Amino acid sequence: MGKVNVYLKRSFMIVLSLIAVCSVFMLGFTLFIHGYHYQNEEMEESNLSGLHSMYIISAITLALALIGVYGAYKEKKWALIVFAVGMILGSLFMIFLEVVGLAALKSPLGEGIKNHYLDMLPLTNASESSIDSMNEIQMHLQCCGLDKGYLDWGYNIPESCVCDEESTNPCVAGPKNSSLSEHMVDDQPVMIYNETCIPFLIEDATMSVRNALGLLLGLTLFWVLSVVLCVFILCQLRKKDDVPVVVYSPEAKAGNYTVLADAAEYN
User: Fold this and answer.
1) What pTM value is reported for the model?
2) How far is it, in rounded angstroms, from Cα 48 to Cα 65?
3) Is the pLDDT of residue 160 over 80?
4) How many Å separate Cα 173 from the centre of its chain?
5) Measured between alpha carbons, how far is 193 from 149 in angstroms, rounded to an integer?
6) Cys-Cys crosslink for 71: which of 29, 80, 120, 264, Cβ 3.0 to 4.6 Å?
7) Nearest CA to 178 among 149, 201, 155, 151?
């Protein structure tokens, strides 16, 4: 079995350490998200399936990284082969996810988001959880309503539609015959957000998908790098150790030997 270059081994183990740290971070983040949604009782079936997938991916990646570290440290071929095969399959799966994500960006992603939120209309008859969700969206995105602006709320326009002093989105005067009239000072109208929320929701979702694809691409390239280093180590392990060259002296070739005395002379 050949000898592995020490710098190659160190580089490989550094890459594996970073992969292990990323796996632990992803596992902890998944636990946090799971606990947050479980506490607020907002977990849907699709979100739960996604969390289970993140659990499996992070756990398998962490296990493969540990196997790879063991194989590199002990120079065990079977461990390095298991790591390489597992990472190749994982890289192919990540590439598949990236293709699906790119297809989602090219497909009418906005239409799906728009239809999802338009099903909440009319907001006057929406559930309490939907209203709380809309209040958070309106405060965060500085918008009001979904389709027709503040008209979607009817008479009961929430305070989350009221323009903030540091608002960057355009504002308009709210109707005087709404629930916001009680906040009027000196008969001055209350300013509310003019933009509807659906365009901002679509833009926010598109940006999230692009960021996720960029993160997946970075992780995939990192995994491919670990596989390449692992293959180099396996190639060096397959090399045989150098056998010292046997040197024959001219005397040995000429048969220059000394004849021993006959054993019968000593009898």
Assistant:
1) 0.66
2) 26
3) yes
4) 43
5) 8
6) 80
7) 155
